[in-house]
Amino acid sequence: MTNYLIGAVLLIIVSYGGIEAWPLIAGPALFIDVPAQHASFPDGIVTIQGRTSRVAELTINGALALYDQKGDFSSTLTFPRGGSILTFVATDRFGRRVTATRSIVVP
After folding, report:
1. Structural domains of the chain, count
2. Cα Rg for the chain, rounded, in angstroms?
3. Segment 61-104, tens digit of pLDDT
4. How does residue 16 score in pLDDT terms, banded at 50, 70 and 90?
5. For residue 37, is it within any domain?
6. Secondary structure of the chain in HEC code, one letter for each residue
7. Any bridge partners for residue 39, and if so which?
């Protein structure tokens, strides 16, 4: 009987440790909601929206971007006529990176 109790307690401890360690194992996450890939912006003003999790630093085209406690971010950028590529890089505190790109067009 005590062996089962000890086994159950150890299973609970290991499960809890796995749940708490998951953010360290998973690394950063980055989701871009706006703009869509190959979107067209006739006026050249691009609104960027998305969310991150488990991130220490977020950059958009090499410039630091601000995000709130929930990981949501929003920014407005102006682009010249022609095609442009937006590069998003999310880095966690261990240096692991996730990169996303979006191509946009200003006719």
Report:
1. 1
2. 20
3. 999 999 999 999 999 999 999 999 999 999 998 889 999 999 99
4. confident
5. yes
6. CHHHHHHHHHHHHHHHHHHHHHHHHHCCEEEEEECCCCEECCCCEEEEEEEEECCCEEEECCEECCCCCCCEEEEEEECCCEEEEEEEEEECCCCCEEEEEEEEEEC
7. 104
Do residues 57 and 90 lie in contact, with contact meaning Cβ atoms separated by under 8 Å? yes
CA distance 42 to 104: 11
Pairing of strands 39-40, 97-106: parallel
Q: What is the pLDDT of residue 32?
A: 95
| Residue 78, in any domain of the structure | yes
| Domain encompassing residue 39 | 27-106
In a domain, 43, yes or no: yes
Single-letter amino acid code for the residue at 92: D
> Does 66 reside within a domain?
yes
Taking the CA of residue 11 as centre, how many other CA atoms within 13 Å lie in the half-sphere pointing to its CB?
Answer: 6
